Amino acid sequence: MTANAARKRISAILRAGRVGYSRHAREELEKDDLTEVDVTNVLRGGHITEPAEMGQVDWTYRVHTGLLCVVVAFRDDTELVVITAWRKKR
Fold first, then answer.
1. Along the 90 residues of the chain, how does pLDDT read in single tens digits?
2. SS3 of 62-89
3. Do the Cβ atoms of 89 and 21 come closer than 8 Å?
4. Among 3, 10, 14, 51, which is least packed by CB within 10 angstroms?
5. How far apart are CA 62 and CA 1, in angstroms?
6. Cα 87 off chain centre by
7. In angstroms, rounded to a whole number, what is the distance separating the alpha carbons of residues 33 and 1?
8. What CA–CA distance (Å, rounded) separates 25 from 65?
9. Is the alpha carbon torsion for 17, 76, 3, 62 positive or negative?
10. Is this prediction's pTM over 0.85?
11. Domain containing 7 — which CATH number?
């Protein structure tokens, strides 16, 4: 899927789908003092600048803002899972 198609799917899922979190993502959010609101803001306003990467099971997409990166995978057209997230700078 192209970066533009992935962005559109993320936007549609944020409007009417489901966002889940892996255990690893929850751990990393806590470690970097981030919240689900932070993740949602990145997914709403961030950019996908790299090609998709094959993760352990699915293709993953890195969504960036100036301060944060969130990695997601799509389960289907209405659900995505946050694989991990981190703060780029403090």
1. 899 999 999 999 999 999 999 999 999 999 999 999 999 999 999 999 999 998 777 899 999 999 999 999 999 999 999 999 999 975
2. EEECCCEEEEEEEEECCEEEEEEEEECC
3. no
4. 51
5. 13
6. 13
7. 31
8. 17
9. positive
10. yes
11. 3.30.2310.20
For the chain, what is the domain count? 1
pLDDT of residue 57: 77
Longest Cα–Cα distance of the chain, Å, equals 34
Q: Say how far apart CA 28 and CA 34 lie, in whole Å.
A: 8
Q: Which residues of 48-79 are buried (b: 16+ CB within 10 A; e: fewer)?
A: beeebeeeeeeebbbbebeebbbbbbbeeeee
- Residue 30's domain comprises 3-87
Instruction: Give me the pLDDT at residue 75, please.
Output: 93
pLDDT of the residue at 56: 77
Determine which helix (DSSP H) or strand (DSSP E) holds 55, and give its type and residue range: none
